[in-house]
Amino acid sequence: MHILILNWRDIENPMAGGAEVLTHEMAKRWVDQGNRVTLFTSSFAGAPAGENLEGVRIIRRGKWWNVQIWAFFYYIFRLHHPIDIIIDEVHWYPFFSRLYAGKKVVLLVCEVANRLFFHLFPYPLALLGRGIEKIYFFLNKTVPALTISPSTKQDLIQEGFKEENITVLPMGLTLPKVARAYKKQIKPTFLFVGRIHPLKGVSDAIDAMGIIRATLPQSQLWIVGNGQPSYVFKLRKRTHDLHLNKCIHFLGYVSEEEKVKLFQQAHLLFAPSVQEGWGLTVPEAAYQGTPAVAYNTSGLRDVVVNGVTGILTDNNTPEELAKAALGLWENNKLYGRFQKAGKARSHTMSWDKTASVAFGVLERVHHTL
């Protein structure tokens, strides 16, 4: 089978996130099983127009904001006949491939934007964005859909999708080969890992540290990830205004090896996102013995088992984030239980399972064509 994946980014993109990890982990396994996989995606600075990555053919055209248009023309003139099935990934908007590729389309929906428009844009623009989203959901509500959490499944049902058309993928986890183990820091150390973006709640993590420092004056926060320079500058200024320069460290992008080291050395992971599709950093941290304190939001409530592997806040505020972190820091027995349960759960996550379940859906759709 020749599978075409339409996604706004690929695994090599500096702005790649959990969705790109998921996509690549599935794609390379399908290639290993004898299938052809082509990923059409946007370009980025220094990227070749095409390359082969672990058997997956990657084609890059346009930018993240116009890659859908490029995909349409490339499909019509270059890719139409050899393609058996299309995975149309939704990030705010899909590629609308159902309109030109017919019934060979399967949606991969990591999250439903909905309220996110109103977090990011002024009211008129947010209303327009939400209106366009409702239109594309209406056009695609009969399309088979893959998603990555029960929360997103429920969001899709509320948008008019039939439950029987939605498959929740069991999410996998890449377990790194670690050359050595690192001990926890002597200082109380908190960690944020992810894209530096308003929706990720980094500013709330900074505010929470201001509260935590009143009780734990030696505590520190490591912030790992890239983002728009203007927003990173804004967060650095906030850190300066709160007099937290000496305890909050912006580490930027780090290698996988360095990320594992930080996971091992930190005591707690902060996950204060407005919304997530899944929240891959939570099991990544849990595998390294670091529980999470997270907001009780879509995606995060699926990956954090509240009171078993970590804590979901009662209210999604910096005050509650700080309160939960301090409570767990002071309870060594509970902390140890969270470490044990989190690591055990992370061991059950396999990309092989993810790829197998998704491929089963692709086969069923292909057989009906």
Jot down its keywords.
369 residues, alpha/beta, Rossmann fold, eight-stranded mixed β-sheet, six-stranded parallel β-sheet, globular
Put the structure in a nutshell.
With 369 residues, the chain is of the alpha/beta class.
CATH architecture of the largest domain: 3-Layer(aba) Sandwich
Gyration radius (Cα, Å) is 21 Å
Secondary-structure element order, as H and E? EHEEEHEHEHHEHEEHEHEHEHEHEHHH
**Are there runs of 5+ residues with pLDDT below 50, and where?**
none
Instruction: Tell me the β content.
Output: 15-25%
- Average pLDDT, all residues: 95
Approximate helicity band: 40-55%
Please name the CATH topology of the largest domain: Rossmann fold
For the record, what is the CATH homologous superfamily label of the largest domain? Glycogen Phosphorylase B
Q: How many extended strands?
A: 14
Number of domains: 2
Helix-strand category: alpha/beta
Biggest sheet architecture: 8 strands, mixed
CATH class of the largest domain: Alpha Beta
Record the strand order, biggest sheet. 3-4-2-1-5-6-7-8
First-residue to last-residue Cα separation: 13 Å
The shape is globular
**Number of helix segments?**
14
Chain-wise SSE layout:
Elements: E1 2-6, H1 18-32, E2 36-41, E3 50-53, E4 56-60, H2 67-79, E5 85-90, H3 98-101, E6 105-109, H4 116-120, H5 123-140, E7 145-147, H6 150-158, E8 166-168, E9 189-193, H7 202-215, E10 220-224, H8 229-241, E11 248-252, H9 256-265, E12 268-271, H10 281-287, E13 292-294, H11 300-303, E14 310-312, H12 318-329, H13 332-347, H14 351-367
Parallel strand pairs: 1-2, 1-5, 2-4, 5-6, 6-7, 7-8, 9-10, 9-12, 10-11, 12-13, 13-14
Antiparallel strand pairs: 3-4
Helix pairs in contact: 1-14, 7-12, 10-13
